[in-house]
Amino acid sequence: MTLSRRNFLKGSVATAIAANGLTLFPAGKVFASDTITIPSATHYGPFKAVVKGGTLIGVQPINDVDPFPTEMLTKGVLSRTYSDTRIKYPMVRKSLLEDPLGDHNPHLRGKEPFVRVDWDTAIALTAFCIARTVEKHGNEAVFSSSYGGWSHCGVNRPQTLQGRFFNLIGGQSICAGDYSAGASEVILPHVIGDMEVYSPQTAWEIVEKNTEVVLLIGCDPWKTNRVEFRVADHSMQKHWEAFKEKGIKFVSINPQQTQTDKAVSSEMINIRPNTDTALFTAMSYHLYKTGQHDKAYIDKYTVGFDKYLAYLIGDEDGVVKTPEWAEEITGLPAAKIKELAELCVTKRTQIAAGWALQRADHGEMIHWSIINFAAIAGKIGKPGEGAGFSWHYGNGGMPASGKRMPIGLSQGRNPITKTCPVVMVSDMLKNPGKAYTRDGSNLTLPKAKLIYNAGNNLLSHQQDTNELIKALNDNIDTIICHEPWWCATAKYSDIVLPTTTTLERDDISSGGTYSNNKIYAMRQVIEPVGESLDDYEIFSRLAFMFNVHKEFTEGKTMYQHVKASYEASDATDDFKTFWQNGIAHVSTPAAANSFVRHGDFYADPIKNPLHTPSGKIELYSSTIAGFKANSCPPMPQWIPPFEWLGNAKKGQVHVLSPHPWMRLHSQMANADVNSYESVDGRQIVLINKKDAEERGVKDGDVVEVYNDRGVLLAGARITAEAMPGVIYIHEGAWLQLDSKGRCNSGSINMLTSSQPTSGLAQATSANTCLAYFKKCTDAETPNQAYTPAKVVKSDFKVDIWSLQLGKRLKAVAAESGPEQSPGEKLFYGSCTLCHAAPHPSDFTYKQWKGITNSMFPRAGLNEKDRNLVLDFLQKNAKKG
């Protein structure tokens, strides 16, 4: 069921809207005196909100700073603000409300109705559940699933504020790593001294002047640069179009032709999913066998070639890694593999690899194998050449200002050191305290009893949904959720605290993940819908209950924090001018246009070594060898995934779950623009014509996709762009289970596996997935994922005194920790916005130096601040 205009407020102003915001209010539109415009910003771009009578009636793009406003901004923001799915009041699941001291019937989550309560009751019950958990099990039992911080683009994100609150009362166990690039962010610091996946790329000007070939590998910048963790620049397209006009050749290795491929006329090479490691292994072998490897480069800039060569020529396993060997694995002709290797070595080639590649079994091997090939070909560090893993994000190639940006409230140091890799959440719930390894450390999973979720849709992100729901219901006493909308996570929670959207609160952000050349005011546009509160206010009230209100707020309102944040930046406008205009520009030095990724290392590897143990590119890692991590060899090797087309049963297809076109993960799924992703309200599944015909499926049919982990219903979209044997279901659809346990909405994680990549990174292998599909003839109802949860009235009144809150809160009060050093404040305030704050001991100091080399420009820290952070990390990093 596609959302319609009935989702807007039923008031006279809103019902008069007859078209989308862009059509009604183009940039430069002058309004009558009863209509005002207020500058603000989102992940989808900066804008001016058009407000009449206190109601948002349109979104006006700012074309001089956003050359490519998307419909997610011009339509979606307006649509979802007044959606029927808004949670307007505090809600408590009926069983918990009526027996807070007894059995909460967790098996009824997702089925039982909610009861509206007032804020005093909601805060009291929330404080009670936290205090009871800490009292009985300790702070480790409070687990933060607030993983992403993608809920809005301001510096004071929900998960940051959550960390700040809980760290003041003794801490919480947290997630480690991420779903985006979890395998590579662990392996690549050992290989090339930086995470790479979050690093700035060679400047566009250098590529345009020097590059002859761009090799896209699972990379679709046209789509994925539409959104950003901060405020999207939308400046990429014009540069890539200039690359094409210049005559740069584009080659795309991908099972699907992407929007980027169409825009730049890529030569398509369709490859079997999860086999890229075999391809680049064979390409490396071919360069060696034909004498086209760059021996001088290998000797000067790398270590471990002798060991890697032994693997290539089969000394280890008796298998020579020839193009003919790779043909059987990848499905690509050996002649094409040789041609591709020779094209890359004879032309100035920039490799642009996407993150999706490494979301696979043994994902650590994939980007590593690309780096090994690029090094053997003598490419890394040369102008317009090498391997980059962030071209598809943050407008890779965008020159960076290097200036100080606003930073948010510090989370502070977490007294609890227990972490859980994101993909292991279900495993943690089923096996509390289980031993595991990650990045060479021997660890144990937290013993969680309460899940606190702010700004994240856990039931959309996490793989193997059925496993997750059972694990939650079997092992977790309480789930507390901050959420503006009735997404699946809210529906499966026990206490739901309605939060404001970005339009209903003040915050501040910056332009671009890498550019850092603009600062945006995220001004409040409208009054909160219903009784929703912003996360700062909610955690402030909880902080009052736990007697840490002064420490949490520092005696300031959010507006005052925003003002202080701006004034600590390198912006030159005074705050009043900035707040009125909504934007402050920050200059970018001309030298930024000449940036070459690893250029300093290439120019002088002695003076500018990489932050690896050897200071060079490690084709073989002695450090990884010493870890003896399960399923992670010390050099990139082809290891067959647990599921792939090479072991598929008759009728099975490989299922990939790329990023959607009109959503940011699960955000915008409840907006009108989601119609681009749906057939009759269900998530689309892209199917090759041949596969569809074999199963009697036609365009627009409801399709049932299934494997041993679960079943979903999706709308068939037949396309010639997908290769046979592979189907595509975009991630992010909301969950709704029918009576047979099938997701009626098309949520991909009904099918994906929670098996980690290996014992090194413990990252997601979501794109390693086989399933069957067939035409569905027994869909029970239209998709109901985008309808509110059932709410009933109850005469039951919670006896606050019976909860013994005073006694419980006093019993769990945390002692004040040591005062944070300036470097610690900067680290937790500006360098950990992406996810839950990592512990300094997660990496060695040498690794931190490599990681912060890319992190500091994104954080916008000046030289003085960088040194303070490095001093803090040097004292607290992992030894080794």
UniProtKB/TrEMBL annotation:
Which InterPro entries does this one have?
A: Asp_de-COase-like_dom_sf, Cyt_c-like_dom_sf, Molybdopterin_N, MoPterin_dinucl-bd_dom, Mopterin_OxRdtase, Prok_Mopterin_Oxidored, TAT_signal
Q: Where is the Molybdopterin oxidoreductase N-terminal domain?
A: 40-82
Family according to the record:
Belongs to the prokaryotic molybdopterin-containing oxidoreductase family.
Q: Which Gene3D superfamilies match?
A: 2.40.40.20, 3.40.50.740, Dimethylsulfoxide Reductase, domain 2, Dimethylsulfoxide Reductase, domain 3
Organism expressing this protein natively: Photobacterium iliopiscarium
The chain positions of domain Molybdopterin oxidoreductase read: 86-543
Q: Where does the Molybdopterin dinucleotide-binding domain start and stop, copy by copy?
A: 655-769
The protein's name in its UniProt record: Trimethylamine-N-oxide reductase
Lineage of this protein's species?
Bacteria, Pseudomonadati, Pseudomonadota, Gammaproteobacteria, Vibrionales
Instruction: Give the protein's cofactors.
Output: Mo-bis(molybdopterin guanine dinucleotide)
Q: Keywords for this entry?
A: Metal-binding, Molybdenum, Oxidoreductase, Signal
Q: Say yes or no: keyword Ribonucleoprotein present.
A: no
Highest taxon of the source?
Bacteria
